[in-house]
Design a protein that fits this description.
The structure holds two protein chains of two kinds. Chain A has helices spanning 51-59, 86-95, 112-122, 127-140, 145-148, 157-169, 187-202, 214-220, and strands spanning 6-17, 23-35, 40-44, 66-72, 78-80, 97-100, 175-179, 206-210, 223-228, 231-237. Chain A is an alpha/beta fold. Chain A has one domain (6-103, 173-254): P-loop containing nucleotide triphosphate hydrolases (Rossmann fold). In chain A, the strands form two sheets. In chain A, strands 6-7-8-3-9-10 form a six-stranded mixed β-sheet, with helices on both faces. A four-stranded antiparallel β-sheet of chain A has the order 2-1-4-5, with helices on one face. In chain A, β7, α7 (187-202) and β8 (206-210) form a beta-alpha-beta unit. In chain A, α3 (112-122) crosses α4 (127-140) and α3 runs parallel beside α6 (157-169). Chain B has one domain: Rossmann fold. Chain B has helices spanning 2-6, 64-71, 99-109, 117-120, 127-137, 143-156, 173-185, 203-220, 231-237, 255-260, 265-272, and strands at residues 21-31, 37-48, 53-57, 79-84, 110-113, 191-195, 224-228, 240-245, 248-254. In chain B, α5 crosses α6. The chains are: A alpha/beta, B alpha/beta. The interface between A and B is medium-sized, with 29 and 30 residues.
Amino acid sequence: MTEPLLSVRDIRKQITLHILDGKQVSPLRGVSFDLAPGEFLGIVGPSGAGKSSLIKCLNRTYLADDGTANYRSASGEIVDLLHAPERTMIRLRRTEIHYVSQFLKAPPRVPVLDVVASVIVNRGGDPAEARARAAETLSMLGIGPELQSSYPSLFSGGEQQRVNVARALVDPPRLLLLDEPTSALDAENRARVLEIVRRAQANGTAMIGIFHDIEMLQQLADNVIVLEDGLVTQHGPIGSVQIPGYIEAGAAEFV
Amino acid sequence: MEALTESGIRPPDTAAEQPLLRVRGLTKHYQSASGGLIVACEDVTFDVYPGEVLGIVGESGSGKSTVLQCLFQDVMPTSGEAYLSSFLGGTRNLWEADRRERRHLRTHDMSMVYQNPRQGLNLMVTAGGNIAERLLAAEWREVADIRAKASDYLSRTEVPLERMDDFPAFFSGGMQQRVQIAKALANNPALVLLDELTTGLDVSVQAGVLDLVRDIQHRLGMTAIVVSHDLGVIRLLADRTLVMKDGHVVEAGLTDQILEDPQHPYTQLLVNCVTH
C-alpha cells in the first residue's frame, strides 16, 4: 500500500465560549482516517456534526486540542498540521494546501482577476502568465471577461463561490480542503465546478470535501466518511457506505 | 514531535528560516505621580520573519504602541532584549546600543509611521524635503538621486508630484499619512513599524492608505509590525497576530485562527465586538 498523504489520528476539538459563561461545545471527539495521494474523500453528516471544524483544524484555522495530522509534503517532510510552527503552515498554505471556505474571503477593492492570479504570483509565478491562467479558469467557471475586472464584493453568492473555486484550482494544490463549495450553485454551474475539480483530480490533487449534494459526491468521491456528533460512524468506498437520509437526493428537483 | 524524530521521520524544515527580529521579555514600567507602578508592557516575546507582517491588536492602554516605541528607541524599556539581524549582525541587544548605533538603527534599519503625522513629518518642511531629510540621515549625498527617490516614492504613495514642494501642514490627513509612509519606506529599511496608521482618517481615506500598504507589501516584500485596535486592519495586513491586554500578550497565532477560533476570553470579546 502507498504511504498516505495525510494521516489523521484522534483529532479532538473543544470550544470554550468565555463570553457565554464558559459554555463548552465539542465539535470533534476523536476523528481518525488516512488519505492516499490523489484520493477524494467525501465528508457527510448532519449540521453541527463537526465537518467544518475538521477541515478548519487541518488548515489550522482552528486549534485542535488533541491528536495529530501528519502530512507528507512535496519535499518529503512529515508535518503535523495541528502542531507545526505557524511559519510552516503559512508556507504550506501558500505552496501546497488550499482551503476553500463556504464563503469567499477576498481582500476588498481587488479585481476578481487579480484575486485569482495572486495565488500563482504568491507562489513566485510570473504576473502576466498568472493573469492569463486566472482569466482562463474564471471563464471555465462561467465568469467571463466582462466580470473579471469587478470586485468580488459586488458578486452574487453563486459567483463568489465560483471565484473561491477558481482561486483553489487555478494552480491545483497537492491537498485541497473543500467546505461545501457548490452550496449556492445551480445545476449548470455545479457541472462546471465538477469538470474543473475532475481536472485537478486527474492532475493528482488529493481532496477532502464536504458535500450536501449526493450527486457531486457520487461523481467525485473515492471514499466517504460519515461524521455524526464529532465521531466517524462510517468510512469506506463510496458504494459501500450507507449515505444517511438527510443528504440531499440531488439537485435536479430544485431546478 | 520528539516521538516523530525518534521514529526516523524528519521534523519540519523550518531551520532554514531565521527571524529578522527577535524580542525577548520586553518590559516597560512607569512610575505614576503618586509613586505607584504602572505596567505599560510586561514580558513581551515574539519573532518577526523576513517578508512577513506581524499584527499586534489590543485596546488603548494595552501596551501595543509601547512595544513599537521601545523598538524604535523613542522609549527605553525597563528590561528585555531585542536583536535585529540587519543591525550589527544581529549580535547587539538594541537596548544596549550606544548613541551612534541607536541613531543608525533609526535612520537605516527601521522606520516608524506614527498615528499622528506630526510625529513622523516635519510639517514645515516640504513633502520632498521630508523624504530628503530621511535619505540624508541615511547618508545619501547626491542631490539628484535624493530628488529622484523622493519623487519615486511620492508617486508610489499617490502624492501628486506638483505637491512635492508644498508643506504637508497644508495637506489633508490622508495625504499627510501617505507622505509619512513614503518617507518611512524611501531608504528601504529592514523593518517598518506602523502604529495605528489609519486611526482618525475617514473610511474612504483609510481604505486608500490600507490598499497602498498592501500594494507595497506585495511589490516590495516589506517586513513590518502593524499595531492597530482595528481587527479589520489586522485581518487585511497581518499573517500572524499577537493580542495584547493590560501589557501582556494574551494570545498569538495565525491571523485567521485568532479571528475564527480565539482562545482567550478577551480575544473572544474583541472578535464579537466587530460590527461588520
